[in-house]
Amino acid sequence: MVREDGKRNFALREADGDESSVFSGNTPRQAALKAARRLEPGDSEESAERVDLHLREKGTEKVHIYEGWAWEETAPDDKPDWMPDRITEANVSKQGIEHLDE
After folding, report:
1. How far is CA 102 from CA 17, 60, 61, 62, in A?
2. Are the beta carbons of 55 and 33 closer than 8 angstroms?
3. How far apart are CA 84 and CA 80, in angstroms?
4. Residue 21 pLDDT > 80
5. The dihedral of CA 92, 53, 74, 25: what is its sign?
């Protein structure tokens, strides 16, 4: 369901069907990137562990499937004072959509 501000809610589904967290975004990819940033970061993008993320769009039976990974990088030189020296970056790749039959 779309909120007044145009954002949609996506629940992160575990293998057993439990929905542990909810991420919002205008697109499923935006929510998947937020979920991927919570993964254990690798030392570099190439060495980061890739994990399947299953995001069910709230109010629907659609499950968006992404492969996500996260890594740590040095913050840019022009970073604000509050930003730490090491930051977590993330990326996702869409694998497809499933429809639940529950």
Report:
1. 11, 11, 8, 11
2. no
3. 9
4. yes
5. positive
Residue 95 structure tokens: 């694998």
Given a cut of 90, whether residue 67 has pLDDT beyond it is yes
> 39 and 68 in contact (C-beta within 8 Å)?
yes
Bridge partner residues of 11 (DSSP)? 22, 56
Report the C-alpha gap between 89 and 58 in whole angstroms: 26
Average pLDDT value for the chain: 93
- For residue 42, what are its two tokens? 């690798």
What whole-number distance in Å separates Cα of residue 63 and Cα of residue 28? 10
CA angle 79, 83, 89 (to 5 degrees): 90
Give 17 or 53, the one with higher predicted confidence: 53
